[in-house]
Specification:
Elements (H helix, E strand, L loop, with lengths): L1 H7 L17 H20 L8 E12 H4 L1 E11 L4 E11 L7 E6 L9 H6 L3 E6 L29 H19 L7 E6 L1 H10 L7 E5 L17 H4 L26 H6 L5 E7 L7 H16 L24 E6 L7 H14 L2
Helix pairs in contact: 5-6
Length: 358
Amino acid sequence: MIREELESRKLPELLALESGEAVKTTQDWERRRGEIQELLRREYTGYPTRLGVRTAGRVLFCDENGYGGKAVVKTIQLEIKSDFSFGTFSFRLALPKGAANPPLFLYLAFTPEIADGLGEEILDAGYGIASVYYQDMAPDYYDEHKNGLGRFCARNPYDSWGKLAIWAWGASRMLDYLLEEESVDAGRVAVMGHSRLGKTALAAGCFDERFSLTVSNDSGGGGAALFRKKGGEQIENLYGKGSRLWFCGNFFSYLNRTEELPFDQHFLLALAAPRHLYVCSASRDTWADPRAEFLACAAASPAYELYGLPGLVTDDAWPECGQPLHEGYIGYHLREGAHYLGRYDWQQVISYRNRWGI
């Protein structure tokens, strides 16, 4: 059933080089990966800044007894410099006490609260959290890219970076600092976000190979969901006053021409291979379209199979709510409910990380 539905959507071929040659080996895939990265930057996210930058962090505050004595909680001011520009933003880092070099979640937050208020449960599971309020990196409104990290690149109406790429670039600069300055497990850093920040997490983790796991929750159109035959959010909806800023200008040349997109979102998901990927969906989140998110995971799986790894491991059927799929390098769950990131989602992602040691 899954294969037939994917065939009916007439997706662009993942495992074929632009020359038309079939991708048969991991060496072929590395060439294909480069082609896909170039394509997505040109037609979807926009190109990140090409400026060389220097990143440094300064601890502004340190609470040695955060969360009732469970964690050390720091507020860190991150400073990013090039020969032409300067940007700064703060983030909060919570590390569980008694855990040397803990695994970490780099979490893109909608509020200044650590993990949008769910930090204690994550710490109790033995994970650290680096939490950044996304608007501190660059504002989520039209500003001609003159504020925050947008200053690092000139804006053009075609292929310069949109806000998703700016926020994702900021997450990678956080990772620069964390790997250099803090006591975390360098091989076990996940990037995670919800909704537009789920789209951002994919833009960060699928392009930056230092992240061991990329997690999107209810990321929908422009995130994990396939565009072809998608329900709910379409490219024309993403052209709204706010969301059009998230992508490069070239992306909107496909308004009402979805079938002509030279990619679909399984291209983005496949960039995570051979690292781990996790997609969370909600049964009543029809705007995001959980079916399109699930099918994108299935369509990205052949990239993992080139490495002899299982991608999405599932029966040939639509998944049931509350029955997470954790056996492959692509994890997935469908929960009951609407557009939201809650305890159940965190619990399943943590369970997946524990299972795989990532």
